[in-house]
Amino acid sequence: MAKKNLVTGALILTAASFITRILGFIYRIYMSNLIGAEGMGLYQLIFPIYMLAWTISASGISLSVSKLVAQENAKREYGNMHRIVKISVLLSVGIGFIISAFIYYFAPWIASSILKEPRTILSLKILAVCVPFMAAASSIKGYFYGMQEMTKPAVSQVLEQISRMLIIYFLASFFIPKGLSYACALSVIGICAGEFISFLYVCISYKRNKQRKKIIKKPTLNLFQAYSALLAMAIPLTGNRFITSLLSSIENIMIPIQLQAFGMSNTEAISIYGQFSGMAMPLIFFPSMVTGSLSVALVPAVSEAKAVNNTRQIHRTVSKSIHFTSLIGIGATCLFAVFSKELGLTVYNQEDVGDMLYSMAWICPFFYLQTTLAGILNGLGQQVATFKHNVIGSIISILFIYFFVPMFGFKGFLWAVIVSSITITLLHLRKVLKFTSLTLELSKWVIRPGLAATSSALTAKYIMNHYLLTQFSLRWSMTFTLIALAASYIIFLFLLQSITKEDLKILKRNI
Is the pTM of this model over 0.85? Predict the structure, then answer.
């Protein structure tokens, strides 16, 4: 079977991400109406623990499997690929069980001493159940990413989100009346159900994939060599991600605490945290489904090109990835800057969320570019660089939260996010330019898209105010406006030659 290229893989993941994010918004709207901003805040407090568990048990191993499988596939060492997958699953599941036991037995201490919220004890105990399944599924997905067969991980994302929503819908009437503690636990049960279904799907898909290909070539790597190759890559990756994830968790846990130091009550602090992390940020990151998918696809694509010393393909891949990420980021900035209040009211019926969207709109290009550049650096084998940059960004954010939030409230936290994100992105960019000798095309990547985005946003705003709102409700007007905005942005990009027919031909051929 022909190898899927970078563009195809990214598009498949993007399509799945689009579906899951649409479903996710429906889910979040339903949950915010069901449990309110405070309940969403409690739910978001669980996420640092969830991410730490995933980081330790799966993140480094999954990425290592992706890179090693891509390298062995390029050399046609198919037996080595499946040996690597087997030992990665055993390793990740073993670590997952240890973490699961730790979270379950120390849930009261984690809730009271770290999260400062005893109402999360039940949620933590439930969360512990899904860690081994999450770890195993991530390792198997690493195989599909390495083979650049993105359909299976993409379908697993959709199934995971659907499972989560169904569980919430059918169990809501039982859990919600029991209070916010049980409401938060219900959300975690949804996470566990999604992880289990995802595990079953990718496990069955891997077995069928292996049987269909009828791989009979014996591995040239013995068990010791395979473990050594995997651990040599996974240990530093996991260590790096653990530290950055730990710092990120400290940031998230500090926010409600420092907001209380500013003078807010516990309920107010948790509610604002829930509005930002559970409502505003999912909207801000919605366009990043493209860049996130691109980042995942970039690791094996760049790694494979590097394995065969194809510098021309690396240069072209990096150039076009940064170009299209810039287009998406600048377009998103105009969207959230011009239509922030309308989006807040349309999606959540809350003006406060709209104010948060406006404040974060200007950072979108840096948010999205940071993800793409990280994928490029990981593909180039520069994990240490991404680790250093993320640590620097996290330290900046923690310092801002510690010193400025008690003085300026939520504005202090916004400054933390903005300054740390810009810092990480610029550090990533400098490293990528150094290793690829890439020339920045500021006119094509920044100036022209900026003009196109501004023109399209003003055009869409005029259409909405003078035609749509006089005929339709806000929700329908916003829907039609988004379509008009996207269409006009693309037209202006072509008119200003930020995108050309040659760019589309390159995408079609293989980046």
Answer: no
